[in-house]
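Weekly modeling sync, notes
Attendees: S.R. (lead), two postdocs, one rotation student

Agenda item 3: backlog of single-chain predictions. S.R. asked that every request posted to the team notebook include the full sequence so nobody has to chase files. The rotation student volunteered to paste the first one in as an example of the format we agreed on. Action items at the bottom.

Example entry:
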Amino acid sequence: MTPIYGITSDGAKRTGRDMRILPRTVIYDPGLTLDLQVTISVTSAINALAHAAEGLYARDANPIHSLMAEEGIAAIARGVSGLHAAPRDLQKRTQLLYGAWLCGTVLGHVGMSLHHKLCHTLGGSFNLPHAETHSVILPHVLAYNASAAPVAMQRIARAIGQVNAPLGVHKLARDNGAPTSLAELGFRLDDLDRATDLAVSNPYWIPRPIERDAIRLLLENAHSGALPQSYDEGSRQESDQNRGKP
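Predicted structure, as returned to the notebook:
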């Protein structure tokens, strides 16, 4: 549903847009997904949800695609919840593909932001799996942007039936079997500084300033599987003071 391509070479991933790669026809058949491994289904769904979440606070966001984004997020949440208990539930599989179509359409019309930059860095330079990385990183990026995009956070929280968007997305992923830490995916703590430098070297636009220390803390929390937290200055200082305490 997008004219976006990704190319990984020499340990770096770059993306671009070209309408020549947009398919003329896309067919979604939920019956073909009934036997798809549930873990792959869930992480792919969170990956799609990330497209819509970033679309809500994109620089070129607009009312129509924001409506599509919120509906897409809601459909993903409906489809993912309880899928482990009923992996061949056709209605849930239909909701997931409906949500994927909406979220992909949003990504095809508005810009990407910090979440995609981090995932492209971790995938392109550290060979982490794509959808699983999205599942881990998204709650932390939402927390990073929360104070600068409160309306977007309200819409995400409403769509998934939660009060807090970052914690709600984390819970949606965790409760449905998605990984919640980069350590699970093979990312090493020794690579934290390099990943941070790569991520901030050529950042995508985001609604709040890029701060290297905050991005490093975000990746550190994502590595350990910690709950998403505020990455504003005061919260970072408190985190630094508490680090290492039992």
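Discussion: group reviewed the output briefly. The first helix runs from residue 38 to 56.
Action items: rotation student to repeat for the remaining queue; S.R. to check formatting next week.
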